[in-house]
Amino acid sequence: MRRRDFLAIGGGLIAARSARAAQGRVEVFLEEPIGTISPNLHGHLTEHVGGVIYDGIWVGEDSKIPNIGGIRTALVEAVRRIKPPVVRWPGGCFADSYDWRDGIGPRAQRPRRANFTINHPFMVKAPDGPQKYEPNWFGTNEFMRFCRLIGAQPYLSANLRSLAPQDFYQWVEYCNAPAKLSSLADMRAAQGDREPFGVRFWGVGNESWGCGGDFAPDEYAVEYRRYTTWLPEFGVDLALIASGPDRGDLDWTQRFFAKLTEKGNAMLQRVYGWALHYYCGTSGAGQSIDFTTDDWYSLLAKATVMESMITRHWFAMGEIDTEHRVKLVVDEWGSWHRTGTEVHPAYLLSQVSTMRDALVSALTLDIFHRHADKVAMSNVAQLVNNLHSLFLAREDQFIVTPNYHVFEMYAAHQGGRAVRTLFAAPAHSVREKEEPWTVTGLAGSASLHGKTLVLTAVNTDAVQPLETEIVLRGGVSRSAKVTTLAHPDIHAHNSFSEPNVVQIREEALEARGSTFTYRFPPGSVTKLVLDLGS
Ligand code: AHR
Question: Distance, CA 92 to ligand 1 centroid (Å)?
Fold first, then answer.
């Protein structure tokens, strides 16, 4: 596609309008529902890698950093504000090296283990500490406490590479068995949690095509059947999530589903979710804060590839799962930049997020909303001190990143009914290492909550505002509020010394009737909340 061509997202092409006043167009079809936007589309990942757990979440009960039973208070308070629905733990790749038994019992007596990243060149140079030698201070009970404090559901990833199915069953029993009726429930009670945790979401391995065991898809399908046979339920509607593809690996999807159902299509009932992992920016997108305008566009273009990842795997799954019982769970996503902006020499994979990453967050969440009928959950990687983080923390310093503000704005979509919406604006095309990348000029999503419409949109133009005509099909706006995340510098980011460089702005908006215009600032994320009256 050429620069300045018109591009439509979420359906057909909208005719280009010659009016100079409105270069962009949004058309909301209020009576064309897609599905309910599950709050779980706004989930998180917290892994024992680098500084995510120590010192991102866990600072210890004796720390001078304000904490609630060892958990960083500032984090708890900030996360609560974005209504986190679900948190995945303990990995990532760490999950397939983790024995849950190491993380229970008196904290001082728990074993120390080499973290799975110990051979990583970054970690070889890193100072010794809990990031290198896992002290197991933060185990199952501590994680459950964290979830309770922030009001999120737990999503546990079980070890399929280096533990047996029995260990998985017993972890389920430790978490979910009724009080007093099993020795594992007694062990849980001895840690202060008499009542069962009622964990519903369980990952069966992680990246089983790679760090999770280097399986072939049909081998993994056989293991999956074995690990999920006669799992104890304890009255919980267990939602098992299978380790899905790396990006666009359709072969992994097709062969897993084919092998799984060799024992009959009833096997599909064992799979709640098919985990897709997709990171943008892994090759040649520059470093996280030092990038060109072309890098801006190429990263945003790569972020929007998520849409075709979802639809392509969805169709591949449908070849066997014809009723689409199994939904997609995008349990790792975000920008993955080159090294160089780490918070600390031991905080592997930590990076500074800029406005560019905020737009990646918004473009991606909007894609999930537009595919609310296909995607059941997503978990951005990762909550704090990692790749596409919402927070950075170092001892008593703590800040929110631009990504945080997107999650804060987008929480308004949770539980709404996604409605079909078309977005059109001149696209932007660049070349990166001879490869062409095109990103739409405007993208977004819309959801209805009774008589309130939440419309979010991203103007990807790094320089120009976008005058846009917004048309509501089937309703009229009576009054509106707008929230904007924008900054004149596309590299803008928050830091420990300047924590409020990137902030959101809220104001009332004169937007009445079924058609009105709005000027989206350059490189911005916008939320319009429209009261549609009665
Ligand atoms: O999120 C960082 C790592 O990326 C995870 O451990 C792994 O699952 C993925 O490759």
Answer: 5
Counting runs of H as helices and runs of E as strands, what totals does the chain give? 11, 26
Which residue's C-alpha comes closest to atom 2 of ligand 1?
Answer: 92
Q: Which residue among 207, 342, 408, 432 is the active-site one? A: 207
Q: Which of the following is catalytic: 27, 47, 307, 332?
A: 332
- Mean pLDDT split into 10-residue runs, the chain, 534 residues: 30 34 92 98 98 98 98 98 98 98 96 97 96 98 98 98 98 98 98 98 98 98 98 98 97 98 97 98 72 94 98 98 98 95 96 97 98 98 98 98 98 98 97 91 98 98 97 97 98 98 96 96 98 86
Measured between its terminal Cα atoms, the distance across the chain in Å is 42
In angstroms, rounded to a whole number, what is the distance separating the alpha carbons of residues 497 and 16?
46
The rounded Å distance from CA 225 to ligand 1 centre is 24
Residue 296 near residue 462 (C-beta atoms within 8 A):
yes
Q: How many CA atoms lie within 13 A of 340 on its CB side?
A: 9
Whether 207 is catalytic is yes
**Cα angle: 30, vertex 361, 441; to 5 degrees:** 65
Could you tell me which residues come within 8 angstroms of residue 301 by beta carbon, excluding any fewer than 6 positions away?
428, 430, 437, 438, 439
Give the pairing type, strands 375-381 and 327-335.
parallel
- Ligand 1 nearest-atom number relative to CA 212: 8
Q: Which atom of ligand 1 is nearest to the CA of 207?
A: 8
Structure tokens belonging to residue 366: 């909007």
Strands (E), 248-370: 273-280, 327-335
HEC profile for 115-138? CCCCCCHHHHHCCCCCCCEECCCC
Ligand 1 centre to CA of 210 (Å) is 10
Selection from 117, 217, 96 nearest residue 167 by Cα: 96
What are the respective helix, strand and coil percentages of the chain, to the nearest 5? 30, 30, 40
Atom 7 of ligand 1, residue of closest alpha carbon: 92
Residues in the chain, overall count: 534
Q: Is residue 205 within 6 Å of ligand 1 at its C-beta?
A: no
The pLDDT score that the predictor gives to residue 411 is 98
Spatial distance between the Cα atoms of 492 and 490, rounded to a whole number of angstroms: 6
Backbone phi, psi, residue 401, to 5° = -100, 170
Q: Which of 371, 407, 312 is nearest to 36 (CA)?
A: 371
Residue 273 confidence (pLDDT): 98
Active site residue 469: no
Q: What is the pLDDT of residue 10?
A: 32
CA of 262 to the centre of ligand 1 (A): 30
CA angle 452/453/458 to nearest 5° reads 150
